[in-house]
């Protein structure tokens, strides 16, 4: 779906960034909350109407159509032939069709929002009535409105971003527990399974209407774009938001349909179904009801913002003057009171939802955007105006374009940042002028294309307009051989050369590469600048792998008190070392700039290895490279062992076979991995990588649910509060779980705002550590001394458990090539001359070499299967490689940082002393953990031999 995202080639003539606007993350949360509140409850009914095969197809179609239409509406806001941006949806209607167009949009827009706000109040009243029926529906509605009223007075959407974030979290929580309720209902009663149908022709229309109604977000799009810090990012925000929404919708819809079958059609919503089957005192029902109430409140606040501002504007038009704040707040309160009255007198949720949703979807999300877009395109072309092919940012107040170059280059808003000025494309010949031509010309050049060359058929015209709508080119077709096509061809050629050059460049495993990155469980490949959201995902993924599943075993080795305390201390030290690495990298960059006389040739991409080479010499890079090589190879060996053990266990349980060889499964896995290792880059694995990440998250959530359901352990006295004899083994496992430092520098270099990474890293580490502690302690308390080194072996034997274990193995399988890709790069760089000398067989030799490396990891895995305890193997990697990379090397680099002598003496002495303490701690703790882990190897092997002899 990347074709729906606007590319950076179509920049506007002038754009300005608002410093006080909504960030990308906050805008994504607001957009998610715009759609989630209304549609999430009717989705199981929609799936029941369409069937479990046609339902996903309709959901995908609704997602594509909604995203396309919202991008179309986004472009309409910047297609004013007068050169100014439209302020609102109504302004677009007025520009196209005059006062009738404005009235039509206003009626649909504010009428729809008014009814949807009433729906949220109804939903909250019904939800709380299910929990406390003695109070009644109307009192609950009045209480709800009384709590929401002060929050509805907030003037802009940027001030309710926190509320939206809480609403998103509540939506995720409700989704999880609805899935739990559906699975529990399916397991308790199998009579509905026979009623599950793959498709239903009679219910397709109503099902698709429900899906489209669930994506209702057009009323808030203009307001959301106006509040954004950088409105050019709206297509990407929409992509992320609609993807999150689709995942949530699909999860709730299919969980409800799988749990209740066609009986779902007898309930008004999924909340009623959960309440009817679970009862008011059930914990799952209680959590679902509370979460839906929070979602309703957040959704109401997001939607009420444009409604309140519209009421204020209408009141000012009637009064013909600017109203004081008290009067404006009174207008908002009256509108909220009207929504409350409608909610009290409407008999049910479903009737109003279908009526209002159908109207809004038909007009605001389909008819109006398409009509306005084609009309504005026709107006711009007919008048010969230059039309911006990508929406630009402008100042808050519309001002006419300045012909004087000096005036046009300055921003009147001191709080805004003007990014630049690039001349627009002409209509007949969409040729992008050079920067010099832009500065010298006062306006667009007049086209000299002959009428015959510019003529287009109706089909070509529609095709070009659609391409223009989704961010490709301009509304007219460039003639063959035009400079634009030549530039595009040159760009493509450059990309191909760059891709081929990636094979021959200096291959640090932790540098920014196309298609590969390093870090435990990471698929983060950062080949171009990314925002905060992308950095968050990259950091989170760098900590998610098989190390998470060994945390319960680590807690058993450390104790339910000593484990969390030790994990928190290790997290604090690891975070400090990451900050040391960032600080050293910054100082090295400053030193390089000073040595170059203040002249910079562009952004310096400083890898972990090159940082070591600059700070402590060539051997520093050698130590980093070979430590990364050993850790990556160790991770890949662990992946093969994990896949073989879990896959053979699942096959044994599901087929009833007495014995399934793990070695045979490992050999098959290696044979399947060899062709994947032959890929030049990992672009072909984007979709499998996404599936891998979803598989890892789904597996972890299911393990946590099974552990919670198994609570508590029968004999709590057998649990250790602090397990000192085996605490060194815990240290190795804990460090293994936190091995994400290799991605810190690549992520920072890939960010548009790298200065935000230190603070972002602190938040991520707090969240990750809290999740690790909760997950590990819960599983340990649940299973006690029986906790396995891989927690998946503690899961109950069940069809769903087997499926999720296979799904998790699939995720680990596609993580393997991502972990091996840096190894290929590093070693191939060392042997670069050998491969370059083989002119004809160089590629063939490279394929043989990669296959041999994969086979080597397989052979090591076969030998590692003799070790009965998989957790000890992970602890061995953590105590040696991960301790060196996470603790010792960052502190050592910072100890030898450039510009050290220019620092304050007290500050320098304190920093050096702390660096030495961390180095000593890493060396001592690593050696102790390594020795105890080796001792555990021999002890486990002796116990296994004794059991076999007995």
From TrEMBL:
Residue ranges of coiled coil: none
One Pfam family hit: Aa_trans
Alphabetical list of InterPro entries matching this protein: AA_transpt_TM
Ranges of biased composition (kind: Polar residues): 423-432, 446-455
Membrane topology: Multi-pass membrane protein
Keyword field contains ATP-binding: no
UniProt-annotated stretches for the region Disordered: 387-456, 469-520
GO cellular component assignments: vacuolar membrane
Listed PANTHER family: AMINO ACID TRANSPORTER, AMINO ACID TRANSPORTER TRANSMEMBRANE DOMAIN-CONTAINING PROTEIN
Protein name: Amino acid transporter transmembrane domain-containing protein
Species of provenance: Perkinsus olseni
């Amino acid at each position: 779906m990347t074709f729906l995202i606007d590319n950076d080639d179509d920049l506007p003539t002038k754009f300005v960034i608002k410093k006080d606007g909504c960030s990308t993350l906050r805008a994504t949360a607001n957009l998610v909350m715009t759609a989630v509140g209304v549609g999430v409850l009717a989705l199981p009914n929609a799936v029941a109407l369409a069937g479990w095969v046609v339902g996903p197809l309709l959901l995908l179609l609704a997602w594509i159509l909604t995203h396309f239409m919202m991008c179309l509406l986004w472009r309409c806001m910047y297609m004013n032939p007068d050169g100014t941006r439209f302020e609102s949806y109504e302004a677009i209607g007025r520009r196209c069709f005059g006062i009738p167009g404005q009235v039509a949009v206003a009626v649909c827009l504010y009428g729809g929002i008014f009814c949807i706000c009433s729906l949220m109040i109804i939903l909250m009243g019904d939800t709380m009535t299910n929990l406390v029926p003695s109070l009644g529906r109307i009192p609950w509605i009045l209480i709800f409105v009384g709590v929401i009223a002060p929050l509805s007075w907030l003037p802009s959407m940027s001030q309710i971003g926190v509320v939206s974030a809480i609403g998103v979290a509540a939506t995720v929580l409700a989704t999880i527990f609805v899935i739990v309720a559906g699975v529990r209902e399916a397991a308790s009663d199998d009579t509905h399974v026979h009623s599950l149908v793959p498709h239903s022709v009679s219910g397709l229309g109503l099902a698709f209407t429900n899906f489209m109604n669930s994506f209702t977000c057009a009323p808030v799009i203009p307001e959301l774009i106006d509040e954004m810090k950088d409105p050019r990012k709206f297509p990407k925000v929409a992509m992320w938001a609609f993807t999150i929404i689709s995942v949530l919708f699909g999860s709730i819809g299919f969980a409800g349909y799988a749990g209740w079958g066609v009986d779902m059609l007898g309930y008004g919503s999924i909340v009623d179904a959960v309440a009817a089957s679970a009862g008011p005192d059930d914990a799952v029902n209680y959590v679902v009801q509370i979460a839906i109430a929070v979602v309703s409140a957040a959704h109401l606040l997001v939607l009420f913002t444009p409604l309140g501002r519209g009421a204020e504007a209408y009141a000012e038009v009637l009064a013909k003057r600017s109203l004081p704040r008290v009067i404006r707040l009174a207008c908002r309160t009256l509108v909220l009171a009207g929504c409350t009255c409608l909610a009290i007198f409407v008999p049910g949720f479903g009737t109003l939802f279908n009526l209002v949703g159908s109207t809004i979807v038909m007009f605001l999300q389909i008819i109006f955007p398409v009509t306005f877009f084609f009309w504005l395109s026709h107006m711009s072309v007919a008048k010969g105006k230059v039309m911006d092919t990508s929406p630009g940012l402008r100042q808050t107040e519309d001002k006419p374009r300045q012909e004087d170059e000096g005036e046009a280059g300055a921003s009147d808003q001191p709080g805004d940042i003007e990014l630049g000025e690039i001349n627009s494309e002409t209509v007949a010949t969409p040729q992008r002028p050079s920067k010099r031509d832009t500065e010298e010309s006062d306006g667009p050049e007049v086209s000299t294309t002959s009428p015959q060359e510019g003529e287009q058929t109706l089909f070509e015209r529609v095709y070009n307009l659609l391409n223009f709508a989704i961010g490709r080119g301009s509304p007219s077709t460039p003639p063959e051989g035009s400079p634009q096509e030549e530039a595009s061809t040159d760009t493509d050629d450059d990309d191909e050369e760059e891709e081929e050059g990636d094979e021959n460049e200096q291959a640090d495993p932790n540098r920014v590469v196309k298609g590969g990155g390093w870090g435990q469980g990471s698929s983060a490949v950062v080949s171009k600048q990314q925002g905060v959201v992308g950095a968050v995902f990259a950091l989170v993924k760098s900590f998610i792998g098989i190390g998470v599943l060994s945390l319960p075993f680590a807690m058993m080795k450390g104790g339910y008190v000593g484990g969390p305390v030790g994990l928190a201390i290790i997290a604090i030290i690891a975070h400090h070392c990451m900050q040391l690495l960032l600080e050293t990298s910054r100082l090295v960059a400053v030193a390089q700039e000073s040595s170059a006389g203040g002249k910079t040739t562009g952004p310096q991409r400083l890898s972990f290895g090159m940082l070591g080479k600059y700070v402590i010499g060539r051997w520093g890079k050698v130590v980093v490279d070979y430590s990364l090589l050993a850790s990556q190879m160790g991770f890949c060996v662990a992946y093969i062992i994990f896949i073989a053990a879990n896959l053979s266990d699942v096959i044994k349980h599901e087929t009833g076979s007495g014995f399934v060889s793990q070695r045979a499964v490992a050999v098959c896995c290696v044979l399947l991995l060899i062709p994947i290792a032959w890929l030049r880059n990992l672009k072909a694995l984007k979709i499998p990588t996404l599936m891998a990440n979803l598989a890892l998250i789904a597996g972890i959530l299911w393990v946590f649910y099974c552990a919670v359901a198994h609570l508590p352990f029968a004999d709590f006295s057998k649990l250790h509060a602090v397990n000192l004899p085996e605490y060194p083994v815990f240290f190795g496992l804990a460090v293994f779980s936190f091995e994400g430092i290799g991605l810190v520098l690549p992520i920072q270099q890939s960010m548009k705002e790298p200065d935000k990474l230190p603070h972002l890293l602190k938040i991520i580490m707090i969240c990750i550590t809290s999740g690790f502690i909760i997950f590990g302690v819960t599983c340990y308390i649940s299973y006690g001394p029986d906790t396995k080194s891989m927690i998946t072996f503690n899961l109950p034997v069940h069809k769903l458990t087997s499926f999720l274990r296979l799904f998790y193995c699939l995720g680990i399988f596609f993580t393997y090539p991502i972990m091996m890709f840096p190894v290929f790069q590093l070693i191939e760089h060392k042997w670069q001359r050998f491969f370059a000398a083989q002119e004809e067989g160089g590629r063939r030799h490279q394929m043989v070499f990669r296959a041999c490396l994969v086979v080597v990891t397989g052979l090591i895995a076969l030998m590692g299967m003799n070790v009965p305890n998989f957790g000890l193997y992970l602890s061995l990697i953590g105590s040696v490689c991960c301790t060196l990379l996470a603790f010792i090397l960052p502190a050592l680099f910072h100890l030898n940082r450039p510009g050290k002598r220019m620092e304050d003496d007290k500050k320098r002495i304190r920093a050096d002393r702390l660096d030495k303490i961390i180095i000593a701690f890493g060396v001592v703790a690593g050696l102790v953990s390594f020795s105890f882990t080796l001792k555990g190897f021999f002890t486990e092997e002796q116990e296994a031999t004794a059991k076999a002899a007995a």
